[in-house]
Acetylornithine deacetylase/succinyl-diaminopimelate desuccinylase-like protein (Longimicrobium terrae), 904 residues
Amino acid sequence: MSATEYLQRNREKHLNELIEWLRIPSVSAKSEHKADTAAAADWLAERMREAGLTVEIIPTAGHPVVLGEWRGAPAGAPTLLIYGHYDVQPPEPLDEWTSAPFEPEVRDGNLYARGSVDDKGQVYLHVKAVQALLAEGGSLPANVVFCIEGEEEIGSPNLATFLRDNAERLACDTVVISDTTMFAPGLPCITTGLRGMAYMEVRVQGPATDLHSGAYGGAVVNPANALARIIAQLHDDQGRVAIPGFYDRVRELTPEQRQAIAGLPFEEETLRKEVGAPKLSGEAGFGSIERIWARPTLDVNGLLSGYTGEGAKTVLPARAMAKISMRLVPDQDFHEVEKLFTAHVQSLAPEGVTVEVLALHGGQPWHAEGSGPVFDAAARALEAAWGRKPVFIREGGSIPIVQAFQETLNAQALLIGFGLPGENAHAPNEWMSVENFQKGAEAIAGMYEELR
Amino acid sequence: MSATEYLQRNREKHLNELIEWLRIPSVSAKSEHKADTAAAADWLAERMREAGLTVEIIPTAGHPVVLGEWRGAPAGAPTLLIYGHYDVQPPEPLDEWTSAPFEPEVRDGNLYARGSVDDKGQVYLHVKAVQALLAEGGSLPANVVFCIEGEEEIGSPNLATFLRDNAERLACDTVVISDTTMFAPGLPCITTGLRGMAYMEVRVQGPATDLHSGAYGGAVVNPANALARIIAQLHDDQGRVAIPGFYDRVRELTPEQRQAIAGLPFEEETLRKEVGAPKLSGEAGFGSIERIWARPTLDVNGLLSGYTGEGAKTVLPARAMAKISMRLVPDQDFHEVEKLFTAHVQSLAPEGVTVEVLALHGGQPWHAEGSGPVFDAAARALEAAWGRKPVFIREGGSIPIVQAFQETLNAQALLIGFGLPGENAHAPNEWMSVENFQKGAEAIAGMYEELR
């Protein structure tokens, strides 16, 4: 019997196991769920052992990491590290759930529960894939290390330390992460790009204290007006970022990549309705998907100055502040962009105010190689499971964990997600497609088979 | 004996009376001082009666008005209304006072107490002037109505109603107000101009809700960036307001007015140090006094959008708000400016956002005629008291009461202030020059004499 047959025969059993796991409210953000979070780790450890892995629950300063290993592959075989997380988002607001967040329910082919798709379902299909292979063939063509943490939903505060402290044990060729979303139902995807970020704060100081706008207005430079003029000069009229040097390292989309994006099932009007804006717009010459996946941006994230309460207060404010972040694409470097931004903003500062620029947070953009033995094996396996070639998609946001693995373990990441649009991760009525749970497990088992 | 001699002979007695009044903490903003505020009204009423006025304390929805009348002038004589207030600002922070706010103390020729210059001292010198004239001559060349309210420091919420309800009784030719400041010690002044105001709020709406700046940034127009671009286009590079039609009704300064301003004892560097800005700047071609007194402005009073707390939050905000006020000069009309502003801001709104413009508050600019019997009499009397011609100054702010009198009673206002720069009105260590209290009384008595 093949692994696929094993998975198909045990389909209902595996779904019920997942449901059992989803009943444990492993909300990492809340101290009252500390025991539940530990119980979810224990539950997973026990299932991993049943699957044939050697398991250890390793404490951290916060919630523990469940480490599962199988190292029986022949010499020279690659090592895969499966990263995921067993903690979940808080379920609130509770009254917006159709069925209770920790009482999983299947409706219309979807399994509704907090953590179903983010990330317990996507972790568990990896466990079941390995179990199927070991049960049916007794071995895997690669060494496997599961590294399933319990703090992803609170920003993985202890992961980098854990990776550094256990770098030798976690050494691997590829990190496989299933925590992303397919572009559309029935369309298998590999996520090949994430944007980086340079997050800045600009502080403009005018007079030493707030002044009466009648007694001084007109003679004293207003820091809020000055800040607005600075921000206005950060884009040109084509929606391009107007910081000198900003685009120097931007890797342009190839004609093939643009063609692939144009072929995706996507309507601008659908996105417009989703965000509720009167019109979509951005950098001239690109469509929305290109703008989000492959073009850098500059967005004001926050503005504050003077009086912001109800009614009229005639203050000439002493200071004004903007939080401004830039999303970056390969091969931009966030350290360099921070410097370019700071120099340009300082050059825009008008007389009469002083401008301070702070770099609050940064991360590098990421782009997968898009080939290699594991990547190719995964692509073939996805095609076998869904009956069509996978598409290579990107995300406009960042997944800091990908950076952490790349930097600490020097391993390539492979992002294969089995979520679907509208899955409500982080929102009420989170769900995972039962079919994707099943086909995901078959595809992952297939990936190992393809590596033989 | 002349009125001046009467005032000089009773100098110490009058100062001690004022000190007695200043001991009453008539803080209108605080309910625990309600009885004190009433006591201050009673005290004033009693002194007015002693001066020879017919006095009535008229209740309002808040603190009462002290109305004092003398109507013995010959037929055809003008009627002057003396406006002032007996309430004071809260004294906090108490620990910054050298002597206690309600234990008046004379140091270096200045009387320190809350309310000394704002406005009890300036009210009381009017009472003493009338008393001197009635005591020495038995009559005045004008009918006089004192209208001294108890709510100026809380925005005069009941004054407009009071004026309307008592319009016949308050009918007058000129309203004399002593609640302003001389430009410099020893330099008598008449305030001949106040700026008006159009206070607006601009609300920019982008997407329906806050979005993740990674998942959508670049494809959705950011309302905070859009607001900054709108604000940046409200001035040109010369510091002029760039709203079409904005300057059409602005009365330009005459060469004589500019020369008079240039002759005032004023240093730009002193103002720069006072406000603590790195440099003063504003509309090209004008000095700071001209900018504050006679040029219209546009200032952002408040900005708010997105995340303004500590650290980095990657939000693409749904909306952004600015409070923006324009100070207006004769002959601008605030209703018209509101319309010009709204139309221009709407015309600047980029695709992808909707812009709403609200008019929150408005007031007309004011400029005194600068001549006429009472004005000329006051000018001559000021010259006699100080030994030099008074200068005509303006204020950059608004005094809504001037508008209220003009609109309700159709009376010209005459603003003669006896405060001095640095007098700390509204701040700890408020003081009034004892010399100005004395000379002010003499000048006001002289004004009546000049009307004979």
About this structure: The two ends of chain B are 17 Å apart (CA to CA). Chain B touches chain A through 81 residues (CB under 8 Å). Chain B has a mean pLDDT of 96.
